[in-house]
Structures are given as structure tokens and as C-alpha cells.
Amino acid sequence: MTASTTPTVRVTDAELLERALACYKPHCRYLRSAGLDANGPDPLVVRGRFAIPESCYIDDTGHLNSVEVNICVNQLLYLALAVVIRDRLAPAFADWTLGGYWERRLSDVLIGRYAAAFPRPIDAGAFTAELAVRSVRQRRLRSEAPPLVAVDLAFRCHDAAGGAAGGTVAVAVVGGPS
To answer: Considering Cα of 59, then 60, then 63, then 67, what sign does the dihedral take?
Structure first.
């Protein structure tokens, strides 16, 4: 995936966004809208507006917390992978179909590493986040093992009052093309 050969994609269509969020319970669909850019320093950046009116698991903490950030990152990730597969933006996903991805995203998209830092509290009621796809590559963990797709990501979140969070995620997409 290289920035010079990928098209720019601006606002995601409502149907793709709805499909990306379909696996979430209705009260956990925090991503309200998203846009994408495939011509920046990172191969693909997905930016989203989020609102979490009520936590799905805990009383109000007064700020965005790590569990909800992870859910938001996942929502951006599912959307980003759908765009990568649909628009053929990464050779590692060349043999994948969008239909196969939708069927297997919950079972075959695994978070291998997640790290986050929260230097300033963020208002969970209204914030933005972006997920930068840093690299997408096919690799094998062992020579006899089937290949997997390794996706390295960075994210950051912020709100209008200066709240900030960010981190990195390493994802493995297993199971081969679909």
C-alpha cells in the first residue's frame, strides 16, 4: 500500500458505514460519520465523529475511557478494512471479497497488541477520532503456517475542549482470502 498509487476517498457512503457497524448492538454504534483519506503520509486514514450518550457497561465516568476507545477504534478498523478490500488498496487483500470479509470479520480480525495513553480527559458525548493504517503486509508466523495479514495502526482522539488520547494497535487478519 503506497500513498502515491491509492485514490483519495472522501466521505464514506451511509450503506458502507451501516454495514461496518451492523455487528454492534444498536446502543454501541458510537461512530456517527466518517471520512477517509488515502493520499496523506499514511496509506489510509479514517476520521470519524463519535457520540457515546451512555456507556454500554458502566455508570457515567464523566470522560471517555479505554474500553470505549477500544470499541471506537474497532468501529473505525472495520470500516477501514472494508474500504481497503472494496477499493483494492493493499496487495495483501487482493484475493479477498467484501462479502467474505463481512462474514468473517468477527472471527478472523484479531487484536494482537493495543496500547493507549490518555493525557487529557475527553468528553464522550462528542469527540473525533482518527485511525491511520500505517502498514498492511502478508506474513507467516511459522513456515508451515498459512499466511496472515498484519495491519499496523495508530489512533488519536480529541474533543473541542482539548481532551486527548492516542495509541497503537497491531491487528492480525487470519484465515486467508475469502
So the answer is: positive
Run of H or E including 36: strand 31-37
Cα of first residue to Cα of last residue in the chain, in angstroms, is 20
Summarised one tens digit per residue, pLDDT across range 105-137 is 999 999 999 999 999 999 999 999 999 999 999
**Residue with C-alpha cell 460519520?**
33
Q: Which of 156, 169, 68 is nearest to 113 (CA)?
A: 169
Give CA angle at 100 (56, 85), nearest 5°: 85
Contact yes or no for 129/156 (Cβ under 8 A):
yes
Q: C-alpha distances in angstroms, 156 versus 91, 143, 145, 168?
A: 26, 35, 34, 9
CA 139 from chain center: how many Å? 20
Question: What are the DSSP calls for 4-15, one per residue?
Answer: GGSPP--BPPHH
Calpha distance 165→73 (Å, rounded): 12
